[in-house]
Structures are given as structure tokens and as C-alpha cells.
Amino acid sequence: MDVIKADILILGAGGAGLFAALHAYDRHPRLKIVIATKGLIGKGGCSRMVQGGMNVVLNEKDSLENHFLDTLKGGGFINNQALAWTLVSDAPKAVYELEVKVGCFFDRDEDGRIHQKPFAGQSFDRTVHVADLTGIQLISRMTDQIFARNIKVFEETRGLDLLTSKDGHRIVGALLSDIRTGEIFVVNSKVTIVATGGCASMYKISAPSFDKTGDGMAICFRAGAEFVDMEMVQFHPTGLVAGRSRLNGSLLEEGLRGAGARLYNGLGERFMERYDPERLERSTRDRVARSSFIEIMAGRGTVNKGVYLDASHLGAEFVEKKFPGMVERVKDIGKDLAREKVEVTPTAHYQMGGVCIDAQCQTNLKGLLVCGEDAGGVHGANRLGGNGICDSTVYGRRAGDTAALLALEEDLHPYQEAEAEKMRMRWLKPFLRERGENVYEIRSEIENLMWEKAGLVRTRLHLQEAAYHLENLIQKIDEASVADRYLARYNMEWNHIIDVANLITVCRMVVNAAKCREESRGAHYREDFPETDNENWLQNIYQKKGTAFQLELTKKPVLLSHFKRENIEDCFFERVKKKRTYTESCDGSTCL
Amino acid sequence: MPDSLHVKVFRFNPDRDVEPRFDNFEVPVFDNMALLDVVMHIQNCLDRSLSFRFSCRIGMCGSCAMYVNGRARLVCRTQVSSLRTQDITIMPLPNFPIIRDLVVDMAPFFEKWKKIKPYYVSNKEISEPVVVRPGSGEREIIDDMLDCITCGCCYSACSMVATNSEYLGPAALNRAYTLIADKRDAIRVERLKTVDRSYGVWRCHTQFNCAEVCPKNIVPTRSIQNLKRRCVLHKFGIVK
After folding, report:
1. pLDDT tens-digit readout, A532-584
2. How confident is the model at residue A52 (pLDDT cuts 50, 70, 90)?
3. Same domain, A389 and A314
């Protein structure tokens, strides 16, 4: 096996990975930095797919405290408050840097300053954007900056596993595979940053890019990293309904609802009036998605099991000017977003849960930093639209800074050859058997299982079933084979087997934590425990690998560092009152 | 719509094959089917050894450009129905080396992209986002041109690229324009020199091949003409 030595290894080249590389390099240009990305540089992952934009406090009428409180409210108050505060207070620096140093140009207001648009769940219009396809510019410009620096980029190269030092306490790099040649090699590094994104793609209907399969999370899990609140998976309310096409579940951005687009069920009722009469369609993602789901499940959806999103009353010209990317996407399925209603469905979108980090992106394992969607705790039980790319950029910057400091302090610790060889043989197993399980069938089994048993509405029974089936699927994926046994060069099937093995690893944590949390909060809704239970559940759920690949789970009370219990009760009281009004006003059977 | 498609797919594995071949597949049609659905169906159900590249599936990443029925396209953004035929031929993008089957090596494209210094160089005097009123004209046509997703369609369609391996090509020159016209950038003049060469802007013969295939509806020819004008003015000493 080839061995490359580096100061810093970064897995993933989305917003978090790219910013980490830029910051580490600019701190100390002499550091040897290696970025490995599963796709082409700047093309993989979801930062590039950001549509709506990025939340940031820029206006003097707004305040960091407001953004912070919105983030906690949206997150059901189980956010790691220190991380959430870092998010909002670093965001203005990140946006300035993107404009002034990286060279982005955000849309301007009439007065010539950066325009900020309304997004759901926010007390102030604070989302900066580039029309309705913001990610293209963010990631393209960051990628260009990588080209300006002496940073080694391995494209179409994926991390397989993290390597540990002899005493087992330190991460000393990773085993990687070059997708183009199939060759497996070692990068021995002082610091390793994992930023490959989450895997909402575990669900039948989902929004992320197809290459996101929770690789980073699974890699960290196998190495012994600790995870937090993995039950929290966000469903975006407005995924496009496109039948069997791969377009199905792709997003129609939140700015549409922010601008006033409405949701109707199959009967033509504006159903959000019943679920959140005050905020209506501008309610938080968790509530809108669940409301739509309940309507659909109760048989009040459209023929294709969706609800209608209607932006036509905003005026065709307005919609075409403000949301050109969305109009074009909808055109692909033969509809006109500016002039007619369009079928949408809740679609799995984002994982709030992830690896536990501190504000410097450090984990429980020395030498391992995690940032972006792979990390958990910032968003609690539900992420606000516009806080996602905010998270990636804010924590990407921080991970880069921390990595540069650590790389200067630390020596390079050797990796263990025997460990690397064992891992290599494990991943090569699909080539060794003539016949075996079909990975594509396993993948669709997972997607259906997770959608039906561990999706928007959960029960203990369903989650137990999901857990049971996942154990079987782990066995199955271990017995998968590849059709093209003689060629590892750009072998899509082999890579998909690795993807799915990682996906299942993450699914297990999601299901296990969902089973444990016997209450409903944010994105996590338990039909058998429909109330939010602040008495017993202002808690975070932690998981890591126990003996024999089992899950070790613990609960700890949320650290209420900024907002105390009383403040939280006040906020919940407001919501509970609203919920009661609704219960009284409808006939009961399908109410929240 | 017909029930099924007759799909011819280009196959080549440099490690094993002496020369490329075409494989034929029958693919069932469904509503809203995109070309990406076609290649995925073939790979998942009919021949698992097929290789192609994709990521976002909604036209934002520019990973899945291929040459289909005589034209470079993003397969995720091309509806099967728009081809108006049952017979589909899928090949890798022209003007690029082949890695395997439909996967090409984008290196030549990005090498040229890097040549124009594609990175913004910050101006020390600017410490916060500049004030630019939307109707002021200060941004010229930059913002229309910034939507490039570096998919390589234009590069593969350009007949000047095909005949001159040195030519920078439409995407790189378009990127150069967006920086040279950006008043915030610190090395605009230096960058102008990198494109004011025989294999830079002057190689463009305004055939609009690039604009015809751009999935983002960008017209690189327009940026390139704009650069030519700037180059001439620069020679006259009228630096803009």
C-alpha cells in the first residue's frame, strides 16, 4: 500500500471541508494539507445544492440574541447552546470573508447593501443569498481559492476508515480508496478532519445528492467517536413529487413559503390553518412537514400522495424573477410554478444529529476534528432553513484554525500496518465471492424500511421492527458481491456496497436513538408519545460503538448554559396554548 | 410516449479493451424520466459493470454531462421525452480522455480553468461588502455569467477546442470575464494579459457552439467578445 504523509487530512470538499482547507492553509501556508473528495472537487455533496441561502445577522435592527433564540426555539431547546451561540456569532465573519476574501457576490438590496430575505421560523429577514441557487456560487468560489493555494486535492477518492495509533487513543490518518483506479492507500496525518456530510438519503424520498451516504459518520463510528441526538432527521416540507424519476424529492426552496406561497391538501383546504394558525406556511420545517404528512396519510393528499404548493397568487413575473432555478426545475416535470400549483411531499433533508464536538470541532478522539453535517448538537431537534450552510462555513473555518494549531504542536504518530491491512481486506471482500447479495436491492429495502418505520411519524413497535431488519441487512451487505469482479477501476457497484454499509451503520444509530426518546420534539415525532416532555426529556442522547459493534447509549441533561429552564418553559407554554386551540377546533382523530 | 427505449451505450475500459464498443439495452419508460434515470436503470438492473458519473441530480453540480444523440447535455436535466425519439445513443463527452465507459477525465478542462487565475484576489482597501445598487450597471453582465457549473459541455462542443489543444475554451474565458469585469478584484490587468493571446480570446471564432449546449443558458461568446473589446481598449491605453 502506498503511504502519503501529511499534516492535515480533510475528508470531504463541501462548504465545511473547503473552508477548513483554506483556513488551515492561510494560518500556516507551509503545512501539508490533503483534501480527499468522493466526487470532483467542489461538485460533491450538498453545500453546492444550497438554494435558499445563509442566515446571518447584518442589520442593526436584528441581533445575535434574536438569531440565537430562533435557533434554539427551532431546535426544541436541546441544542448544544455553546455551539449554537458560536454559530450565530461567527456567521457575520463567515459572510464577510466569503464576500471580501473568497470573492462571492451576494444579491443586493435597493440601497446597494446585501439583501436578506425571509425564511421560516425566523423573527427577522436574515437570509443572504444568490437568487435561489446560492450554493453554486459559494462552492465554485471556494474551489477557485483552493486552486490558488498549494493544497493537494485527491478527486474521486473516498475515505474508508480512520487509522489509530498503537495505544488506540489517537487518530493518525485514514485508509482511502481511489475510485478511478480502485487502489487503496494510506494517508498518515497529524490531524484528520471529517466533513463528508450526513445521509438523509437513507429514506425513500430524499433531497441530498446521491453521493452522500453518511461515510464520515460511519467512519467515525467505527473508530469509536461519540454521537449525539441521532434520532433527529429533518424532513423538508416541499420536495417535488416526480414519480419514479430521480428528481423525486428534490427541493423547492423555503424562500417560496417565505415569500408567501401556500400549501393546500387534495380537498383544497389550506391545512396549515389547523396546525399553526399564526405562522401558517412559515412555521418551522418540522411542523410543516409533519402536517403535510398527516394530511397525506389521512387520505387528504393529492392523487400522487403529495400536497399542493401554490405560488401563483404571488404573480407570475415575481416568481419567475425571484425563483428562476425553481421555475426551471418544475418545468422539467412539465409544470409551471409561476402559474399553477405543484405537487410536493415531505422529503428527508438533513441530519441534526452527528458526532459530538466542542466549539473547536474537537471530538472524543485525539487528532480527529469533525465539522458540517457530520457533527451534531448545533441545531438540536430541528434545523432552521438557512442555518445549514451557515453551520458548514462557520465550523469549517473553525476546524481549519484548530487543525493548523494542532498540526504545529503535534508530532506525526505512526499508523499500524496490520490494522490498515485488515481494513483493506474487509473492503475488498465483495471481489472475492462469485455470487452474493445485490446491493441495489438492499439499498431500496433500507429506503423503504426507514421511510415506513423510522420516518416522520414513529412508534415503538415500528422502530423495533426497523432495528430488527437493520441487523439482517447488515448481514446481507456483508455478503454482497460485485458483477465485475476483475476490475476495481471506477467500479460503481463496489463503491455502492461501501456506501450502503456506511448507510446502515448510521441508520442503526438513528433508529436506536429514536426508540429511546419517548417524547415528541422537533423533527422527532412519536405517535405513542405525542407530547413534548420537558420534565424528563430536556436531555441529549449519546451513542458510540460498544463491544462487538453493539451500540452503547447514554442520556445526559441538556447543558443550559445561556437560556435557563424558565425561559424555555415560557416558549413552550406559548406553543402548548396554540396547540390546544387547534385540538378544540377540529374533530380529533388526526390532530396533533 | 413509447413503452421502451432502445439505448446504445458507449463502452470502453482502457485497462482491458483494445477498442471501444457499443452495448444495446431495452429500457422501460416512465413519467418524468430523465436520461439520468435511463443510465441508472441500466447500471442497477441490466449491466452492473457500467460506469458513469453523477452527484446532485438537479443540475447544480455539473458532474453528469454526456454526449447524447449528437449533443452534449446534463443527463439529469434532460427529459427523455424532449429527445422525441425511442432511439438513444449515449457517449462520453468529446474532447476529453476517457477513464471508463461514460466517465471522462476533466483534467484538461480544469488545467485551462486554472490558467486564467480563476480565484478572486482581494483588494486590501476593501474590508467589508461593497455597496452596489442593483440597477447601477456596475456589475455589467457578470451576474448572468456566474452561474457556470463547470460541467464541460461547452468545452466538448467547441470546434476551436477540438482543433487547438492549447485554446483556453469558453468556460475558462467566461470565468476570466467575470473576474476582469469585477471592480473589486486586485489583479484584473494581469488577468487580462493571460487571455489576450492567440490561444486566449482571439481563438474564439464566434460560432456559438458553447451557447447552444450550455445547460445554464449562459452565452460564453458574449463574455469572450466583451474581453476582446477590453483587450483592444487596453492596447489603446484606455484601461477599463
Report:
1. 999 999 999 999 999 988 999 999 999 998 887 777 777 665 554 554 443 33
2. confident
3. no
Residues A92 and A217 in one domain: yes
| A588: in domain | no
Strands (DSSP E) contained in A312-454 are: 342-351, 354-356, 368-370, 375-376
Q: Residue for cell digits 413529487? A: A241
Domain boundary, last residue among A479, A510, A529: A529
Q: Which of A136, A144, A489 sits opposite B147 (nearest CB)?
A: A136
One domain for residues A373 and A408:
yes
pLDDT of residue A581: 42
- In a domain? residue A335: yes
Q: What is the mean pLDDT of residues B81-97?
A: 97
In a domain, A544, yes or no: no
Domain residues for the domain of A25 are: 3-232+352-417
What predicted TM-score, i.e. pTM, was given to this entire model?
Answer: 0.95
Residue A591 confidence (pLDDT):
31
Q: What is the rounded average pLDDT of the residues B25-49?
A: 96
Domain match, A66 and A206 both: yes
**Do A400 and A367 belong together in one domain?**
yes
Total residues belonging to chain A: 592
Q: How far is B43 from chain A (nearest CA, A)?
A: 8
Mean pLDDT score, A440-450: 97
In a domain, A61, yes or no: yes
All structural domains of chain B, each given as residue ranges with its CATH number in brackets, are 4-104 (3.10.20.30), 107-235 (1.10.1060.10)
Q: Does the beta-carbon distance from B32 to A332 stay under 8 Å?
A: yes
pLDDT for A315? 96
Q: Indicate whether A451 and A371 sit together in one domain.
A: no
Instruction: Count, in order, helices (H) and strands (E) of chain B.
Output: 9, 7
**How would you classify the pairing of strands B103-104 and B98-100?**
antiparallel
Residue A43 has pLDDT above 70, yes or no: yes
* pLDDT, position A589: 33
Nearest chain A residue to B151, by CA: A43
Query: CB–CB of A333 and B50 under 8 A?
Result: no
Nearest Cα of chain A lies from the Cα of B166 at a distance, in angstroms, of: 20
Cα–Cα distance between A19 and A96 in angstroms, integer? 13
Using the predicted structure, report yes or no on whether residue A63 has a pLDDT greater than 80: yes
The residue behind cell 468556460 is B171
Residue A31 CA neighbour count, 13 Å, CB half: 32
pLDDT of residue B240: 56
Q: How far is A104 from chain B (nearest CA, A)?
A: 9
Q: What is the mean pLDDT of residues A423-432?
A: 96
- The answer on A255 and A196 residing in a single domain is no
All cell numbers assigned to A315: 404573480
Q: Which residue of B has its CA nearest to A145?
A: B119
- Rounded distance between C-alpha atoms, residue A560 and residue A541, angstroms: 15
| Contact yes or no for B89/B68 (Cβ under 8 A) | yes
Listed residues A488, A509, A529: the one ending a domain: A529
CATH of the domain at A436: 1.20.58.100
**Does residue B158 carry a pLDDT above 90?**
yes
C-alpha cell at A288: 410543516
CA dihedral A336, A340, A346, A348 (to 10 degrees): 10
Give me chain A's average pLDDT, please.
93
**Cα torsion angle, A13, A19, A25, A31, sign:** negative
CATH number at residue A313: 3.90.700.10
Closest among B115, B89, B87, B88 to B21, alpha carbons compared: B89
B148 contact residues in A (CB cutoff 8 A): 140
Cell 462571492 sits at which residue?
A104
Q: How many domains does chain A have?
A: 3
A67 and A30 in a common domain: yes
CA pair distance A447, A433, nearest whole angstrom: 26
CB contact under 8 A, B129 and A111: no
What pLDDT shows up at residue A588? Answer: 33
Mean pLDDT for A269-289 is: 93
